[in-house]
Amino acid sequence: MEVTLAKSETVAHYGPEIAFEEAFKSNFKALHAYAHTLLQDALMAEEIVQTVFLKLWENRERMTIHTSLRAYLYKSVYHESLNYLKHKKVQRKYMEEAMVEQKQRQTDELTADSELRHQLHAALQRLPEKCRTVFQLSRFEELRYHEIAERLGISVKTVEAHMGKALKLLRVRLADFLPVLIVLLPNL
């Protein structure tokens, strides 16, 4: 690693590990303060400076620094900080778009739900009275056929006939909403 730091006798005498440690200790605080002013985030500033030193150490064998080590470190911290800020900007934009899409989906679902309720109510009102009563007792009050028969004073077969008629008419009138209704009202 051809670094201005190599001019010091530390590299020649103790080796690259000691020289690296010395460079880290003597530059970390100032680089951290610089990164912190760029990022306004102390933890991220520390992360950036550590990343710069890690890259310096990992690439020490094949890297040549033609300026001073300090200038190289400051420039590296600057570029790492800018990359981080660009990344955060992209993340923020993505999150904003995702939130807008989510709100739009919720609005669409509420609109569809409201439309479905309206159409179901209208379709139920168009059913003959007995069919509507049987259907409502079965689907909304969750009574069994024999319970409906007892409550209305009719036979179970008559309840079945009314339910069959109600389901047939509702299938026709609510064909556009059938996939949703199948989930909401099974056996439709």
Q: What key phrases describe this protein's structure?
A:
188 residues, 8 helices
Oligomer: single chain
Shape: rod-shaped
Mean pLDDT: 84
Low-confidence stretches: 1-12
Taking the sheet with the most strands, its summary is:
none
N to C succession of SSEs: HHHHHHHH
How many angstroms does the end-to-end distance come to?
Answer: 77 Å
The assigned structural class equals mainly alpha
Helix content: over 70%
Quantity of strands, as a count = 0
Residue share in β-strands: under 5%
Model description:
The protein has 188 residues and is an all-alpha fold. The chain contains eight helices and no strands. α2 (16-39) runs antiparallel to α3 (42-58). It is rod-shaped and about 100 Å long.
